[in-house]
Amino acid sequence: MTKPFSRYQASGQQLGGPACLPLVPKLIAAVPGTQESQLLVPPGPLEPLTPPQWDEDQQLGGLKESLSQLCGLLLDKEGPPEAPTETADLGPMEAPDPRAPVLSLICPLRRKLWQNYRNLTFDPDSANRHLYLSRQDQQVKHCLKPRGLAGPGSFELWQVQCAQSFQSGRHYWEVRTSSHSVTLGVAYPELTRRKQGAHTDNIGRGPHSWGLCIQEEGAQAWHNGEARRLPAVSGKLLGVDLDLVSGCLTFYSLEPEAQLLHTFHAIFTRPLYPIFWLLEGRTLTLCHRPEAKPHPGLQEEASGLS
């Protein structure tokens, strides 16, 4: 058998010497499966990298638009806004919170408030002589002609309070008014029955009561002789939420939309009675709900006199 490369040895050429360099390509071609194109070529110098071009509007435009639409839907469905700040001196009118209106006659907020609904009645002994009660003490009307002699617990002012009081828990009630020029609020038992000063009512005029006065041109939130002006109230159905746990008294307008009007923040230390003032010819009705249940924090007892 012939040894490899024997023909080169016979010619006197030695592998590995300079004379063999021309034979290298031939030797490579003679090796099975080896081609000249498989030889490694040293890479040339690297060119500087070009940073990719980023167009934010082009890449994220669709995503931004989708997120914007989603946020709009969530804002439309969110609950009522946070409570307004504490009462201050009479000043510029507050702008209504754009998140406050709830586009539903029976919105989720109102249904939640109904969980603490209380059926109230007026206290006949507290009613001013010009205030006539009817419908099982659920309605009061201010008439020009006074009733008989005033009782020891009746208000000299055109006011009446409820027979029920609250000292703990959370409570909600609704009132329907015939027109503007009415005031609704809550008061401690020691609120005086006597007229003091030139005011026609004393709800919110001192430290023992808080009130929302509704006039034709606007509303005012009163406490301790200080008032805050509010926008006009268009509806005649009003809601009052008294949360004694968190110390909040909140008023709502329920027609044509549910809208938060004002929130008082206070530490309530004594029983609170719902109380009302109404101008001549006005009527107030305490709305009742059949499913409303009494609450342990509700009391029906004689109020204190001063």
TrEMBL record:
Domain B30.2/SPRY span(s) in chain numbering: 100-293
Protein origin, superkingdom: Eukaryota
Entries under SMART domains matching the protein: SPRY (SM00449)
Gene3D superfamilies (UniProt xref): 2.60.120.920
Keywords: Metal-binding, Zinc, Zinc-finger
GO molecular function terms noted in the UniProt entry: zinc ion binding
Pfam families: SPRY
UniProt-listed GO biological process terms: positive regulation of autophagy
InterPro entries named among the record's database cross-references: B30.2/SPRY, B30.2/SPRY_sf, Butyrophylin_SPRY, ConA-like_dom_sf, E3_ubiq-ligase_TRIM/RNF, SPRY_dom, TRIM65_SPRY_PRY
UniProt-listed PANTHER family: B-BOX DOMAIN CONTAINING, E3 UBIQUITIN-PROTEIN LIGASE TRIM65
Stated name of the protein: Tripartite motif containing 65
Lineage start: Eukaryota, Metazoa, Chordata, Craniata, Vertebrata
